[in-house]
Amino acid sequence: METMKHSGRLFVPSLPTLWPHMLLSRPKPGALPPFSSPNVRYFYFARNAIWLTVKMLGLDSGEVLMPAYHHGVEVEALVDAGATPRFYRVGSRWDVDLDDVARRIGPKTRALYLTHYAGFPGPVAEMRKLADQHGLILIEDCALSLLSSDGTVPLGTTGDVGIFCLYKTLPVPNGGALVVNGPRQYSLPEPPAPPSVSTFSHTVSALLQNLELRGGLAGRALRSAVRALGHGTVKAASIERVATGTQHFDRKHVDLGMSPLTKRIALAQDLESIVEQRRRNYFFLLGRLRDISAPLFNQLPPGACPLFYPLVVQDKAEVLARLRVQGIDAIDFWKRFHPACDASAFPEVAQLRRSIVEIPCHQDLTPEVMADVAQAVREAVKSDHRSKKRAG
């Protein structure tokens, strides 16, 4: 493939950016989990909450049934805490094979682990029933599904615990949460705040992304200059920046809490409006892309807050490169299996890993920007199809 350079016309970040006024906004009542939950603890990473869940519920002496379609970092956190992962089948449309889950429950099974993918609710009621029948813990992983509901039931409230990631959906520098449901109460430690320099670094980065989003070429140039200066300063001062969005679990960060600034920004968000805007943008893409790439889902379930639009493609690398040329920061979604999972046993998951690209549809993107995104995606997918025909 030819070398491609950024066209400079668009800037569409993969995650929402931090608008300056959000630093001064007043907190609003949290109407959705985890903010509305009475028994919640906040962490720097959602993976920290997974590690603590294993220890808190005594799962380190047994097996946890997890989906074969996983990121990997959640599996690493669970293994580091002492539990043994076993994997169940997920189909070509992110559908959990409940019969396969039931077949794999054995004498060592201590918990069922359900991931809600990209805001789309998994079969949580059915998993709850299975867990109750066998006396198992149900863990709801809502790291990709903050603010989503299954109809009127908020995700993360049916399982024994709900685990959330804040910075994938909200413009915050860090943040994960653990919610404990049910009558039993646990004495959860309040983790210490992270290094302020790390929080400051992430906050400035999010503000600069917002500047580029609003400022076009001038904003891009200023952001590049400030980033270069900032990277040099951080390196010279030997400052440890605890990166978010990393691929692996690191035990030395397990005790890090969420920064007070993150909580302040998160509580000042208009959560209902964010859900509405993400749904609007998702429907926009669905209507304009379904004819060139069969949608993974033909509809958006009531209550779902989509993290991104899952685009099915033939050549991920080709499509991603063409979108980035147009200034669209699409993401290669969950490319690899964790080594503990036998990839050959789950061919449908392997195909998902080869074919799904994240197209941004977050709350920063206006209908005008979404029109440009849809057109760029159409061109990238058509080019992908032409390349395949020539190769064939």
UniProtKB/TrEMBL annotation:
Task: Report keywords, A-Z.
Answer: Pyridoxal phosphate
Query: A Pfam family matched by this chain, by name?
Result: DegT_DnrJ_EryC1
Quote one Gene Ontology molecular function term.
transaminase activity
Under the heading InterPro entries, the entry gives: DegT/StrS_aminotransferase, PyrdxlP-dep_Trfase, PyrdxlP-dep_Trfase_major, PyrdxlP-dep_Trfase_small
What GO terms in the biological process aspect are recorded for it?
Answer: polysaccharide biosynthetic process
What family name appears in the similarity comment?
Belongs to the DegT/DnrJ/EryC1 family.
Q: What is this protein called?
A: dTDP-4-amino-4,6-dideoxygalactose transaminase
| Organism this protein belongs to | Myxococcus virescens
